[in-house]
Structures are given as C-alpha cells and as structure tokens.
Amino acid sequence: MRLNASSKIEPEINGRKIMKNRTKKGVLLIAILAGLIGSVGSINAQERLTLSRSYRSLAMGHTGIASANDSAALFYNPAILANVEGWWLDYSAWTMENSEGFTAEDTVPMMTSPTFPYTNRDGISNSDKSAFLSKENPYLRANAGVNLTINLTDAGVSIAGSYLLENIATTTNSGASIYQRDDTIQKVGISIPLGQGSLVLGLAATNIQRRVAEDATTDTITNWGSRYTGTGYDIGLLYRMANKARITWGLVMQNYGGLKFGDPNLEEVEQVGLGVSMNHEVGIFKIVPAIDIREMTSKTERKNTLHAGIELGMFPNSTGGSYLTYRAGLNQGYQTQGVELNLINHYLIIGYTLYGEEVGEGTAKVESKRSVAYLSLGF
C-alpha cells in the first residue's frame, strides 16, 4: 500500500509571497528540529520490540510519524491515512528481519511456514537452537498479513484495517535466555480532516493476542505461556503546510494509557512522538527528508530518541511512491539504508533494508546490525 502525499495536502492559498514565506518558515523549523539531534539524550539504552515495523521507515532511520506511506503507516500515525487516494488492498506475503550472521538457509526454516500464514508459530526447534545461539545478539522477526485502506471523501476521510501475524526471537539476560513472542494483531484506524483539511485528526484501535516464551538456552523445548489479549488506542495529528516543499508535521500518542494484557509483563507502554517531513519533486526525482523524536514521555529513559532519514526516488508514480527508490538515515545513531523496486505501479513491491538497532543494557551502547527482506502484492 502507498499513500499519496501530493494532491490533497495543499489548501488553496493565493499569492506566491505567502507560499514562499511559509516554505521558508517550514524549512527553518525543520532545521531547528534537526539541530536538536545533538542535544537530546538520556541514560538507558535497550531495545523495545515495537509492532509491525516498516522496511521503508527503517531504511530512513526508522522515521515515519509524518512520512510513512506504506502498509505500516497505520502503525506510525493514523492521521497519515488522509493522504490515501482511492482504495488499496495490500497482501504482505512475506517480511523477514534478521541480525548479522544469519543466512537465508538459517532464517527460512526457523521462522517461516510453507502454508498460510507463512510464519512458524511453534517457536525455534531444538535442532535449530545451536545455530540461532551461535550468532552475536541473535534476532529474527517474521510477519505476514493483509492491509486494506479506503479513501471515502476527497477531503481525506479514510479508513484502514490490518491483520498481521508476527513472530520474534531474540535473547535476554545477557544471552542466557531465548525470548520468543507470538502475536496476532488486528488494527483499525480513521483519518478526519479538520477545517480546510490542513489539520487532520487520526484515531486507531489495536487488539493483540499475545503469548511469549522465555527459556534457558539449555532447555530442550519451548515453554509457551498462556495467550493474553490486549487492547490499545492511538491518537494522531497531521499538519500539512501549504507550500511547495509539502512540509508535514506529525504528532502521535500510541497506546494511550498503555496497552494492557492480563499479564503486566506483556504491557505495551504509552508513547508520544513528534515528526516532520518534506516531499519535493524535481524532474524525475522525488526527495523526502524526515526527522522523528520518539518516546518523548517514556518513563524509562533511552539514548538516541531521535531518528533522521532521507528518501530519493526515481520516476514517481501515482501510488505516492517511485519505481526505483534509495533510502538512508540514522536510527538511534546507527546507519540505515535500503532499496525498493516498485513494479507495475504498486502491484508488486520488493524491498531490502539494512539498519542498526540499539540493544545495549543499562548505559552500554551495543549495535545489532540487521537486514529486512520484503515482498508485497497490491491491488
């Protein structure tokens, strides 16, 4: 799925002088926010396993609050749905993440299934554990699902829904335990333009059926716990400035009040984030820089809450994307990059991303280098 950020984001404003002044102010605000990258920090740095991360956003430094435009947009800010045109049905046939050292021969048997839903929900087998634990900071994630987005009005009222099955495997307790998580995720959202449409309100609800297993590395079986159900709500805002640079500001509160399960150890905490992006086309090129500040109200402080990235597309198409795209950025201070091939005007999308993730415990900084392969069929 692609969200088009080109046609409905510019309210009618007369006068080139007003447009030019607003563009200058928007660029100045972006520069100020970018300057914060060197000044915002905190103390603890360890990974928080977020839901359904976009390979596009990860390639752009894991930005997306004001810039997400793919199947995972609903998981970054529901207000962004206002930019969709028409309707989209996106079948994410296969998404796979793995840390450095894993090959396709390793990851496919461990995390995938030949039948729907194409993800291995039984956990890593005992015969595969030695291969998994032989990698430094091992991490695997696989998901498959269906995304539907429908634009209801030209003003930008849109609705969306996602059904995803997601599995994660990593280590905890300084590598002494294998942690696995099995999620069934249903998410719905709506975008509601306010006034002339430059300001958009987004609302979303999430339902997750979750079970986890945390076993000693010497255990010969996976001890899955009970499956619990949790429900959470997101509130998002989008401000689309009327200028040639198409500057967009996003603000989102995810899991308002916390996404609670019957087991408090499974809770998804409330998160607040701020983002800004530009969307500018020059000839056959499209340039999209973006900056996010994440976890602004988190009780557990983390280093590197800022994320920055840029997208360079060639031959923009009617889906809001480009036929060929390169992306790069900084995720928590670590380099990211990725490429995407968008074939037949969104009917087939193939993407590949490399990124670094902070996995250090306490004040330690430890990078886990990872890759993502993505295949999507759209209609």
In one word, what is the shape?
globular
Task: Specify the number of helices.
Answer: 4
CATH topology: Porin
Helix content: 10-25%
The largest sheet has its strands arranged as 1-2-3-4-5-6-7-8-10-11-12-13-14-15
Distance between the termini: 9 Å
Rg measurement, Å: 20 Å
H/E element order:
HHEHHEEEEEEEEEEEEEE
Poorly predicted runs of 5 or more residues: 6-20, 30-34, 36-45
Q: Quick check: average pLDDT?
A: 83
Amount of beta strand:
35-45%
| CATH class bucket | Mainly Beta
Give a short account of the largest sheet.
14 strands, antiparallel, barrel
Count the E strands: 15
- Decide which structural class fits the backbone: mainly beta
Describe the structure.
A 14-stranded antiparallel barrel has the order 1-2-3-4-5-6-7-8-10-11-12-13-14-15. The chain is globular. With 379 residues, it is mainly beta. It has four helices and 15 strands. A hairpin with a 6-residue loop joins strand 2 (139-151) and strand 3 (158-172). The chain has one domain (16-378): Porin (Beta Barrel), CATH 2.40.160. 11% of the residues lie in helices and 45% in strands.
Write the layout of secondary structure elements.
Layout: H1 16-35, H2 55-59, E1 87-99, H3 104-111, H4 126-133, E2 139-151, E3 158-172, E4 177-194, E5 199-216, E6 228-240, E7 248-254, E8 271-277, E9 280-282, E10 285-293, E11 306-316, E12 322-331, E13 334-343, E14 348-358, E15 367-378
Antiparallel strand pairs: 1-2, 1-15, 2-3, 3-4, 4-5, 5-6, 6-7, 7-8, 8-10, 9-10, 10-11, 11-12, 12-13, 13-14, 14-15
